[in-house]
Amino acid sequence: MAESQNMKDLAHARTKVSFDIKDMTNFLHGGEANVEQRRYIIDLIAKDPVFNKDDWGWLNHTDAVKRGIAMSTRLAEIKMEHDLNDLDFATMMEAIDDTLPIVLHNGAFIPVITSQGTEEQIEKWIPPAEKFQIIGCYAQTELGHGSNLSQLETTATFVKETDEWEINSTSFTAAKWWIGGLGALCTHAVVQARIFIEGKDYGAHVFVVPLRSLDDHRPFPGIEIGDIGPKAYNGFNKMDNGFARFNKYRIPRDNMLMRFSKVSREGVYTKPPHSKLAYGSMVLLRSVLIKQMALYLSRAVTVSTRYLTVRRQFNNPTSRNDSDLNPGLETQVINYPMVQNRLFPMIAQSYALFAAGSVMMEMYIGLMTGLSSGNIAALAEVHAMSSALKSYCTTFAVAGVEESRKLMGGHGFSYFTGIAHLFASTVPSNTYEGDNYVLTQQMARYLLKEVKTARTEPEKVTPYSKYLLLGLNRSAFSRTTCSVAQPDDWLNPAVQLAAFEHRCARLAYELSDAVEQGGLDTANPKTWSDHNIECYRISHAHAQYVMVLWLIQAVRDAHNPETDVERRAEPASVKVLERISNLHALHTIQTNLADFVEDGYFSPAQCQSLRAQVKAIVASLADDAVGLVDAFDHPDFLLNSALGASDGDAYKRLWDKAQSEPLNRRQVCDGYEEYIRPLLKKHGEFKL
Strand 223-227 to strand 242-246: parallel, antiparallel, or no bridges (unpaired)? Predict the structure, then answer.
């Protein structure tokens, strides 16, 4: 079969790449061994017929959940057959490309018990969970409450006479809601409920609650369970998000997880050494989301970049016109500067997400290591950091997935791009595991405490908050300006970081001043909610600062001979990575320019040279764009995209996909006799 022009265009684009794609792939995924293991795991899934995606677009919710259960059970079997670890399981979930009922078993149920259970409780629950003799989920959210943990309406009342907890949904709105895995699959749940002992409320704690019989899977008496129905955009349609209502349901006292908080046989409550120790499980889920956003956004820009490389529209000349190579052909869409300016910064964001995901997981592992020995020093910062990054990263990643679709024009609206499914999978991340606006208060509160520390004990300010020391001398700080004198100065990482640090310091002190003034002004008292807009600004500013910092550090490590080999890259790769890092930093500044200008830190001339530099970097990446997305190493099975497949044969693949539409199995559609013919004949025959 003759090679199509689409295929020729993508193949030719690969010849222009200035670096070794394999080397860049190894850098992104932490070394060749990780790359090979990821490919091995994805191939296991791709070869198994249970995970075939051909009919996904036509499944209704009921059929999709049944398919999700089948996929979940096969996933568990593969994990045990091949003795795979938790990282491999996460890679399998990536390869499956959909959220399954079983995902929270390994993602929340087991980690919560492991982190909050005693050694005896871990010994009781984890072995059967790892062998899938029980399957669990995480039940926190209720019909009436989500983020406000202190007001959950599910209660656990201690019954001293029988040494039991009585779990009760105290009202209609106390029903657990949105719980993944609960609707059909799970036999157990870790349930958040407020403890009451002799009428006293001790707040929310976690309990292991059996839900369904291990003999016939029926819910136990006293529990009403069901599925909440289809979700927006047909997203998560294989996930059995469920509800549960408890009617004075009894469980043993020892089912309360008691690594930190404890309740004795006599009903004596022992509080944890730190009120936020239970935050470890939330930190894990939010940290994982950052890496997931790297995978999701990188897939979207892979599809978009490949398609825009083979799509040709109009004969408008550009600086990268290939009319000499292909006379008479229209211009490749990716050669238009406006397209590049929309697309390439998202490629840079994807690289930044990979770096941030790695650092955030290292921080989480360090936190949990410390907590296991009673060291809580890192808890406040890691919790705040994971909250800020979850909010920021999921916000721009979801926007990026949708922008990738829009870049593809009309064909981008087809389900067969793979991006529609991707968007439906990513968009709920803006509200689960903490609403993205509410969540920013966590970093804001943390930074307010750091401001107080900076003023009283500056040597104790944590490393990522050191920029607060810049603002201690407010008079001098207010006179500080950006040092850029010529356009190339923008390419200095120190200049970039100085700008982000100045912005963060200013916003943090402005928030601190506003809170203090509000508290002192008794005639016009302020509430915390009055500062939520400012909280959002400083939280996202801090998140952008560390994202820029971590990518700069990753690129520096890539050409440092003392760095572990898994984190190094060849000089040609580093050269492109430096441009990616510069684009990420400067484009982030450009899209938030008001924050850098309003106090005079940037001059009008500097703003103009910044825009010119961003435009120049974008243009410089044009030849490497296809290589940069190929380096993400997403196989065609994972992308599931007619327009973004690795061979570039977009139009042929889209045509073939359309032929699979069930409507096309008949020349005359179902419904013709009932509806179309009566309308056509209503006023008699008409001859063509």
Answer: antiparallel
